[in-house]
Structures are given as structure tokens and as C-alpha cells.
Amino acid sequence: MRIGELAARTEASVRSLRYYEEQGLLTSSRSASGQRHYTEAEVERVRLIQRLYAAGLSSRTISELLPCVDAPSEGNSDAALERMAQERNRLSEHIDELMRTRNALDGLMATARAHRESLHTPAEATT
Fold this sequence. Notes:
Helix content: over 70%
Strand order of the largest sheet: 1-2
Radius of gyration: 25 Å
Strand content: under 5%
Number of helices: 6
Shape: elongated
Number of strands: 2
Distance between the termini: 74 Å
Structural class: mainly alpha
């Protein structure tokens, strides 16, 4: 199938598919005129790549996980699970950092609200 059909079947943009290929995540054969052609297997591969991106993984990390798909083995599975655990830890640390940042902002907002309330004079409150 050509790139447009693969894009339609996976709901990925043509640009994304080209990027996946550029990053070594997806392969195609080329016609004599240079058009990309994909097999049926690439439909599921693109869907997997999309799920991995949706999980917050980078193209580099995805490329490290794909050997588990391309050459299934206990070793590749163990390596993929370890890599995903590292990414999960990274995301958890980032979430913790974001929560600290949000809490700091909440504190600033509380201070600002208290200051705003202190600006009301008794005369303003009765009018």
C-alpha cells in the first residue's frame, strides 16, 4: 500500500509516517519512481508506534523497544520492560516536580488573594 493509504488506515499523518521512517521506526520499499510502499504488517506497527508516543516515549526510546517486537525473546522482553520502567520513573519524577510547582503557585495565589482582600476598606464594603 502507498503512504496515503497507510495514513488513512492508521489515522497518522503522512508527515508522521515519513518521520517514523526517518527515525528508523518504520520501513518501506520503494517503487522505481521512488514512491513508498508498505506491507499490511506496517499498519499494526504504526498503531504500536502511536501507542508508544501516546505513553510519552521519545522516538529514541521507541527505537530501543522495537527489538522486542522485531525479534521476540526473553532477553529483548526483559530489556524492553526495564526501559519502560525507567521511563515510568522519569515520568513519575516529572509529575512530582509539576505537583511541587503547582503547590508553589497555589501558595502564591493564596497570598495574592489575602492581599487583595486586605485592600478593601470598611467604606468600600458598605457601598
